[in-house]
Amino acid sequence: MNTSMQHIENHITTGIPLSDKPKLSARNVDVFYGDKQAIHDVTLDIGANEVIALIGPSGCGKSTFLRTLNRMNDTIDICSIKGEILLDDENIYGPDVDTVPLRARVGMVFQKPNPFPKSIYDNVAYGPRIHGLAQSRVELDETVEKSLQRAGLWNEVKDRLHSPGTGLSGGQQQRLCIARTIAVDPEVILMDEPCSALDPIATAKIEELIDDLREKYTIAIVTHSMQQAARVSQRTAYFHLGQLIEVNPTKQVFTTPQHELTEAYITGRFG
Amino acid sequence: MTDIKKNDSHEKKSNTSTESNTMTTTQLTTREKVELSLGRRRAAETRFRLYGMASVFFGMLCLVVLFTDIASKGTGAFKQTSLTTEIVLDSDYLNLNKESTIDEIRFANFDGLIKRHFAKMLKPKGRSAKRELFKLISPGASWQLQELLLANPDAIDTSVSIELLMDDDVDQWFKHDRELAEGHMNDRLSDQQLVWLNSWIEEGKLDTHFNTLFFTNGDSREPELAGIHGAIKGTLLTLMVTLILSFPIGVAAAIYLEEFAPRNRMTEIVEININNLAAVPSIIFGLLGMAIFINIFGVSRSTPLLGGLVLTLMTLPTIIISARAAIKSVPPSIREAAYGLGASKNQVVFHHVLPLAMPGMLTGTILGMAQALGETAPLLMIGMVAFVVDVPGFINDPSTVLPVQIFLWSDSPERAFLERTSGAILVLLSFLVVMNTTAVILRRRLERRW
Amino acid sequence: MDMNFNQHISQQFNADLEGIRNQMLAMGGLVQRQVADSIEAICSGDTSSADKIIQREDDVDAMEVKIDQECTHILVRRQPAASDLRMVLAVSRVVRDLERMGDEAAKVAIHALEVANGNQAASKMCNQSIHHMGNAVVKMTSDALDAFARHDVKGAIEVVRSDKMVDEQYASAIRELSTYMMEDPRSIGQAINILWILRAIERIGDHARNISEQVIYLVSGTDVRHSSLSEMEEQAQSDLPDNT
């Protein structure tokens, strides 16, 4: 398909990119790596307590977009951004915004499980410690237990909280990373292909967990697995060459996508 | 037999089948081509393995030759010939009594007492014979008596049995030459001296003992009195100064360059120059130290402080480079995880990067220290090559270091110093081995998997 | 929408989808012939073909099972989405309708035999209606399959419209039949056979309508089952422009 490799001039996102009760809103966001533009004019709302899946072929900018949402791209020197990203109507790229509290509010889970080479307890306790969230040892213990429970890991690790987090299995490590993220009680959780390194059973557990977490958190998940996007998300956004092509309810995207590029991608006509 | 035949016929069958394949495709099958090239590849592999083994063997051989040479020459340094004799500490001659002060003991004429003792015992005829007799005894013998009396003032006027140090010529003759044939014998000893010595040997008085002085004395002009204590202490003090200065400075510089420095031309120039500094000949650092530390800051010469400063200059690039490599090897996922939780830059560096990079940094530091331990050239420039008898007390006392001591002794004409040179080399090498082993153990211990 | 299967990255996927579609159309061809033959048999009174129709019914059943299995395999292996998913679902539903149409055709043939063996005087009852309705459903069957093959929503809507007419004809034929029965109770036996035939033809029309609804689902993604014709037209109108 020739059109798939070309940039679409003046594309306006198909579907419903806005939300009734937005938690995070991107407005006309452009992202550049040096001279190269990675994201073109993306406008997208992430509604409160919804799971939005960002899908698209490799290099389409979905991960880049995700990382702009908690300013993780700040660590890359050549990366610059235009447009606004509003967290509860406040621009996170505003001049006075500090990334430290921002990242406590917008947590992130990465592709590869990356627990610190410390004990399970210390992994989960790290966030509360650096942000001074717990006043006492007892309170910290409670936070750790609660986070591990919410991540569905408590029963598996409660007897070995002080053994290294790196000794867990891949799926457990990823749930530990999720526990670590929710220990600082964020409002939004960004997940960058959280299951790509996991086996199907571990993946199913994480997906189940995402479903549970939705009650309390707003979640944006980048995934390469369309089935996963279909399973866990309420809305799906399709990115293509740095453009946001289509945003629609997941049910619709996977049965009757509106844009032909979305159709072509999810039916496997290009990758 | 029948089984084998069956197998044979089976093989033939399969052969014919591959042949028929070959016929139809009219060229070699892939399998046959692979088998043809296999021989070549195996031969190349074997050749390469042989080259490797040969070079390793050559290296090992050189090492073994070097070590056996040094060890065979150096072990002698750990033994010293002495004469067991009974000597009366004559209070009249020494002009001492039980209440004498330390100073009085220090100035007493032990030398004369020893000479009188031997003159009485062997009755040499004439002045030259006397002189020959006295030359057999080390000047250190009187010092031995003095020490004995200082330790036990009650021993005055009693007869004490003591192992008197012999002169280095006697020492060398006793350890190496006395079994040799006449012609090859060291001609530093006269016939009369040999007669006395042989008589002592027959009486069982002359023997070798462990050379404690080698480890407790400073340098001396007399080989039998020369020791490495001063040099070892000097080395330790110098390394201490080097470590205290270079480790924090090096690690801090590495962290700054790796984590905080803005990526611009200035940083680049600094980085390039650090890399270049690592390749600068060490004597240049000596010159630099002389120019800056002595001339500008007025640090006194030949002190461990100055040596440490110069060696710090020399080891800094090594430490910075290895520390940066260690920081770079910390997986980015760990940083991301910390940043993602809202850790500040400082927290990321000090909570995560530094602990994970520490084993690599320590290894680099220990290797840098080992390099500094063996360094001579820059220290020659700053006067640590001086003849220092006293053991340094602190970093501002004049001192020397082991490699320089080795260098000094190797220059001395006395044969006994050759032995001591090798002995000191053995000590230095064992230091290096200990340091490198520590580096390996530290790395194993601290290294964590992620 | 461009419905070219050859654009999947997986060639085998292309072949699989192409396969079920072609087999479904082949089955459609067979069923269409069954329907046409049975109508022919009842109209002409030529019972020789009726036996064949009844025999061929087994082939239709076998095809339904086979195509349905292949649909299952595609679902399992490819997890199709969007148009591919709709294609598989539509094929799976259409073959069921086709199989039922085959059943109805066989019913027509069976009752045609009974009519031929029964009271000859009464055998011509409602002949006109049967003829009209029969021809209409044969055409509807073929139009529905064409619409499927060409992804033709308009054609599909035409079929739905025709089905409405067939339903009306069926109602009037029933009224006609009841007058016959009231006039002459001896003809009731034949009349019931005729009733069964009319009923079967009407059902065939309904199934053709179902197929057309699947065409609309396939092309536009909207499920128009159980909705009225006007609603259907509205849906098709609103969906179409987005997809072109």
Instruction: State the CATH topology of chain C.
Output: Methane Monooxygenase Hydroxylase, Chain G, domain 1
Which superfamily, in CATH terms, is the homologous superfamily of chain C?
Phosphate transport system protein phou homolog 2, domain 2
Q: Average pLDDT value of chain C?
A: 87
| CATH architecture label of the largest domain in chain B | Orthogonal Bundle
Low-pLDDT runs of 5+ residues of chain C are none
CATH top level label of the largest domain in chain B: Mainly Alpha
Residue share in β-strands of chain C: under 5%
Number of E strands of chain B: 3
Q: Given the helix and strand composition of chain B, which structural class is it?
A: mainly alpha
Which fold name is given in CATH as the topology of the largest domain in chain B? MetI-like fold
Uncertain residue segments of chain B: 1-23
Largest interface: A-B, 29 and 21 residues
Order of helices and strands of chain C: HHHHHHH
* Helix fraction of chain C by DSSP (H/I, runs of at least 4): over 70%
Identify the overall geometry of chain C: globular
Rg of chain B, Cα atoms, Å: 34 Å
